[in-house]
Amino acid sequence: MSVPTIGLIVEQRDASVIEQWDLTTSVYRRYDCGALVEERPFTDAELASVAKQAADAVRQANTVALLARARTAFTNNAAYLAKVAGGTATNADHIAQVPALTRQMQAVIRLIVGSDLLDATDDTATQASASIQTRAGG
Predict the structure, then answer these.
(1) 60 and 125 co-located in one domain
(2) Contact in structure between 51 and 135 (CB atoms under 8 Å)
(3) DSSP 3-state helix, strand, coil percentages of the chain (rounded to 5)?
(4) Tally of CA atoms within 13 A in the half-sphere of 133 that contains its CB
(5) Do 73 and 36 fall within a single domain?
């Protein structure tokens, strides 16, 4: 099972014990009073946890990106509606609005449903969640 490379070490300490999870090499280390007492590859549970955290980070970043797009879409839609209300909207404006609204709804659906739909932000991606589930053993 592979884990995405993140390039950091997570560490937990108490008075005499240091535990390290090296996310780059997928190796766990435990030190007692400064001496290395255990070093091993991540367990399947640790690998799954890292994969889930990576997927959650991607989903959070995609949520932020989709919300930013929603603000832009709101402004663009208001401009279109102003043209319609003012009687200046052209056939080209009406035709362009249909695919724009479809793309916007795809983003809104991703935000509402969440979960694996937030693995991507583009309008057609449906396979990204499969690769994350495979890495996590799901």
Answers:
(1) yes
(2) yes
(3) 55, 15, 25
(4) 9
(5) no
